[in-house]
Write a structure and sequence with these properties.
This is UDP-N-acetylmuramoylalanine--D-glutamate ligase. The chain has about 450 residues and is an alpha/beta fold. The chain is built from 17 helices and 20 strands. The strands form four sheets. A six-stranded parallel beta sheet has the order 7-8-6-9-10-11, with helices on one face. A six-stranded mixed beta sheet has the order 15-16-20-17-18-19, sandwiched between helices. Helix 10 (about 220-230) links the parallel strand 10 and strand 11. Helix 6 packs across helix 12. The radius of gyration is 22 Å and the shape is globular.
Length: about 450
């Protein structure tokens, strides 16, 4: 009799624990290893399921003897343990890749440097409201593996990061969406945008002529990488700059979606729940997916008009004596901050900073000159922000906690202005994650 195959899972967050639950259900011998501390709820879950695990260490010999390793997206390829596994020829895959082997569901996979969480949530909202049996997973919500193990759906909307794509090989998206490619996480890609673009375009790998690919025709990096890796699937571009024969475009202040000559979907831009140029792109992408699935126009319009955006993404966080506070803690790269500033209609006190991932701040300079009166740096090392903007704003100050940043910003702001937390950086220097940063920001506003 064949012995049970042995699977090791590196990282015991939502993704890793979900993978462990699914692997056990599929009859594998499972061992979970995390170099950091494991959150109490996941420890309890692993213990209750009788799954072996370790925290605060990696038992290298135990890990190297695995038939396959499922790796958390947060662990870089250059980590010594991953290098060792690769050298030994051990298969290393992502949780999404592993879970897809045991799922008959169809997938809508959304990636991009900016807007993927919003577009994933909006797409899920549209499909759910239309009565489809749909799950939400990937970089958001419950892990794909956990849902495949416990509550299989007909469709999944998956938010897919470049880190996940790097460890996906056989997986195929039935509908792939690529929103944009702008510099992000370049520290993981040898500081080369072309390496990062190669990672992003993996969203269309293994697609066939029966699948669908949705992309932004206005994004130069996307167009460039598609020359190198042309799509095999049926393609639907979207643009706010030109009318398209098929896909989505803007005309007379309306989004128009046309997949064939017979049928058109129209919706006035001002009726969209999500406002701002970047959100028109997000709404177009979600709208195309909805029409590919032949959902009724009335249902799609209703969902695109009543959608509530995710927490920590341009979230209204309070108004005190005429000063508006906006929590955009999820803006962990420069481009996200550019989009946030672009959508501001008042003068701004901007809270920036954190762990700098090789940021090029030059793309923010014009908007900072136009809209930002002062910058409050929230991070341990703010030197690069000072250097980047010292000639563009009169005031740049340093804060080392959310409370300090909020108090300083409030004193600097005038009535009718906006305090915008849109850091352009990761949060790991002072906070657990971007959610913690946003939560502390909101708590500090309540304390004013």
């Amino acid at each position: 009799m064949e012995s049970k195959r042995y699977i090791v899972i590196l990282g015991a967050g939502e993704s890793g624990t979900g993978a462990a639950v699914l692997a056990q259900k599929q009859g594998f011998e499972v061992f979970v290893s995390d170099a950091g501390p494991i959150a109490p709820q996941y420890i309890k879950e692993l213990e209750d399921a009788g799954i072996a695990f370790e925290q605060l260490q990696h038992s290298v010999e135990k890990i190297e003897s695995a038939d396959e390793v499922i790796k958390s997206p947060g662990i870089p390829e250059k980590a010594p343990l991953v290098k060792k596994l690769r050298e030994k020829g051990v298969s290393v895959v992502s949780e999404i890749e592993f879970a897809s082997r045991y799922s008959k569901a169809k997938t809508i996979c959304i990636t991009g440097s900016n807007g993927k969480s919003t577009t994933t949530m909006l797409t899920y909202h549209i499909l759910k409201n239309a009565g489809m049996n749909v799950g939400l997973a990937g970089n958001i919500g419950q892990s794909f593996a956990r849902q495949v193990a416990q509550s299989e759906h007909d469709w999944y909307v998956l938010e897919i990061s470049s880190f996940m794509l790097d460890d996906m090989y056989e997986f195929k998206a039935d509908i792939a969406v690529l929103l944009n490619i702008t510099p992000d996480h370049l520290d993981r890609y040898d500081y080369k945008l072309e390496n990062y673009a190669e990672s992003k375009i993996r969203i269309i790998q293994n697609q066939t002529e029966g699948d669908v690919f949705v992309y932004c025709a206005d994004d130069p990096e996307t167009i460039e990488i598609l020359k190198k890796h042309p799509a095999v699937a049926v393609t639907y571009p979207f643009s706010i700059k030109e009318e398209l024969e098929k896909g989505a475009y803007i005309k007379d202040n309306q989004i128009i979606i046309k997949l064939n000559t017979e049928q058109e979907f129209k919706m006035t831009i001002t009726d969209l729940a999500l406002q701002g140029k970047h959100n028109i792109y997000n709404s177009m992408a979600s709208g195309i997916v909805a029409k590919v699935l032949e959902l009724r126009n009335e249902s799609v319009r209703e969902s695109m008009g009543d959608f509530k955006n995710i927490e920590h993404r341009l979230e209204h966080a309070g108004r005190i004596t005429g000063v508006e506070f906006i929590n955009d803690s999820k803006a962990t790269n420069v481009n996200s901050t550019w989009y946030a500033l672009e959508s501001m209609t008042t003068d701004v006190i901007l809270i920036l900073g954190g762990v700098d991932k090789g940021n090029d701040y030059s793309i923010l300079k014009d908007l900072v000159r136009q809209k930002v009166r002062a910058i409050v740096c929230l991070g341990k090392d703010n030197k690069r922000i000072h250097e980047a903007f010292e000639e563009d704003v009169e005031v740049i100050v340093n804060a080392f906690s959310a409370q300090d940043a909020v108090e300083m910003s409030y004193h600097l702001a005038k009535k009718g202005e906006t305090v915008l937390l849109s850091p352009a950086c990761a949060s790991f220097d002072l906070f657990k994650n971007y959610e913690d940063r946003g939560d502390q920001f909101k708590a500090a506003i309540k304390n004013l």
